[in-house]
């Protein structure tokens, strides 16, 4: 604390002691609620225009009344002491607070903690936002306004603004009416918004507030409702997008580490939508066959979910990757080989195009290296699946697929096909691939398929 601040504090305490113990030096006495208050004219006149005029006017009235019913100069009221100025409409506590501020420039407009007060039924109340605190602040504001102590009025307004944030709605409405009467616009705005947020219907508000105030509250509710809906929608949109992005990042990290169990917990506990998060598409493109299989077995992802503007399914991606393992596991979990993208392209179309490019151009666009055996197996798996679906649907004239490659031979198994997973071949056989890859009129090829099935079984 600086020396100036210390000197100011010491001066304030000196004046406060003068107010408390200054009967011997006082030159004016007030009577408030039957109790005498001794004060000093010079201090009151110096600090308040009201008191300056009151003491200096030749026709000064004999009483003080903040509500305007000042007594005439015809003498003191009956029963009052000579030379004592009666204060008729300000409470003793409020008048002392007013004088304390005039003497020291500071005051606490809060009842004493744990003090028993008639308008507060709560025991051991701290009186920070109860009805007693509200009433004391309102009375102080009215007195400060009447006596022209504007600094005290501003201090009280600030105190009320803090009180109403935690006060009961009944007390808030009380402050609302007082702020309108006192023309305290900032306090009016704060209280009107609090009443509007309370949710009390107009008929209940009408029991406590004037009709025109109720109308303004309803108008405020309408405006704030429109603004709130717009703000909430905008805020929730961005908030939801951020939360979803965080979920998707966590999901991908879990898939990268093969932690499908964590993904399951996210689905069950956090409401993660695997389709909207494109979990299966991501796993097919970046993870192992085991991860994709475990993800499918959760039963929470649509194996035929179209992604992006093109509308590609996981099977489209697996076909583009030329991955027999992924194609097989997707078909084994009912991926539709006939599903089309927005442009009408099926997984089979993709594989046919890749095969054509490889056979006739010697290269596949976008793929630096391609294994012929994997491309052949992918093509046969998808063709076989389509044939099975055609039979199950009872097509009269099922489509006939023309095999571009000759069927897989033993040489393939022994050379380049060793990297093809055995489960993929089993899926290929279970889907009835032998019928789909039979060449027209080629009996030798048919007998070769039969011998191949027996060898793999």
From TrEMBL:
Coarse class of the protein's main subcellular location: cytoplasm
Cellular compartment(s): Cytoplasm; Nucleus
Stretches the record annotates as Disordered: 435-457
Metabolic or biological pathway, per its Swiss-Prot or TrEMBL entry: Protein modification; protein ubiquitination
Single GO BP term: floral meristem determinacy
Domain BTB: 26-111
Domain C2HC NPR-type as annotated: residue spans: 117-131
Keywords: ANK repeat, Cytoplasm, Metal-binding, Nucleus, Repeat, Ubl conjugation pathway, Zinc, Zinc-finger
Pfam families registered for this protein in UniProt: Ank_2, BTB, DUF3420
GO CC terms: cytoplasm; nucleus
Family membership noted in the UniProt record: Belongs to the plant 'ANKYRIN-BTB/POZ' family. 'NOOT-BOP-COCH-like' (NBCL) subfamily.
Name of the protein: Regulatory protein NPR5
Source organism: Hibiscus syriacus (Rose of Sharon)
């Amino acid at each position: 604390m600086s020396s100036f601040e210390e000197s100011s504090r010491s001066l304030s305490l000196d004046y406060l002691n003068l107010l408390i113990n200054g009967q011997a030096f006082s030159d004016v006495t007030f009577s408030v609620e039957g109790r005498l208050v001794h004060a000093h004219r010079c201090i009151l006149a110096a600090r308040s225009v009201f008191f300056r005029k009151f003491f200096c006017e030749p026709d000064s009235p004999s009483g003080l009344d903040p509500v305007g019913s000042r007594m005439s100069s015809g003498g003191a009221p009956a029963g009052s002491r000579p030379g004592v100025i009666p204060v008729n409409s300000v409470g003793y506590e409020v008048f002392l607070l007013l004088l304390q501020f005039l003497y020291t420039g500071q005051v606490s407009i809060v009842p004493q903690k744990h003090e028993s007060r008639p308008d507060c039924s709560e025991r051991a109340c701290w009186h920070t936002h109860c009805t007693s605190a509200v009433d004391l602040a309102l009375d102080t504001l009215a007195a400060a306004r009447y006596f022209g102590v504007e600094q005290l009025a501003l201090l009280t307004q600030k105190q009320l603004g803090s009180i109403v944030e935690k006060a009961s709605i009944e007390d808030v409405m009380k402050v609302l009416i007082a702020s309108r009467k006192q023309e305290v616009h900032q306090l009016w705005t704060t209280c009107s918004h609090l009443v509007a947020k309370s949710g009390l219907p107009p008929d209940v508000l009408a029991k406590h507030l004037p009709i025109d105030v109720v109308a303004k509250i309803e108008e405020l509710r309408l405006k704030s409702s429109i603004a709130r809906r717009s703000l909430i929608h905008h805020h929730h949109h961005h908030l939801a997008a951020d939360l979803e992005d965080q979920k998707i990042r966590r999901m991908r990290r879990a898939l990268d580490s093969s932690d499908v169990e964590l993904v399951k917990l996210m689905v069950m506990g956090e409401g993660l939508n695997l389709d909207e998060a494109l979990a299966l598409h991501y796993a097919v493109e970046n993870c192992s066959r085991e991860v994709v299989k475990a993800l499918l077995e959760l039963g929470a992802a649509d194996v035929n979910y179209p992604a992006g503007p093109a509308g590609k399914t996981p099977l489209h991606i697996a076909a583009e990757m030329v991955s027999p393992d992924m194609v097989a596991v997707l078909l084994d979990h009912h991926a539709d080989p006939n599903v089309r993208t927005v442009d009408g392209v099926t997984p089979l179309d993709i594989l046919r195009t890749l095969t054509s490019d490889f056979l006739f151009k010697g290269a596949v666009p976008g793929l630096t290296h391609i294994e012929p055996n994997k491309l052949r197996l992918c093509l046969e798996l998808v063709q076989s699946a389509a044939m099975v679906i055609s039979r199950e649907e009872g097509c009269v004239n099922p489509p006939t697929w023309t095999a571009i490659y000759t069927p897989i031979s033993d040489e393939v198994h022994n050379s380049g096909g060793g990297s093809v997973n055995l489960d993929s071949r089993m899926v290929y056989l279970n889907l009835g691939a032998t019928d789909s890859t039979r060449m027209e009129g080629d009996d030798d090829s048919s007998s070769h398929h039969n011998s191949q099935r027996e060898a793999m079984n």
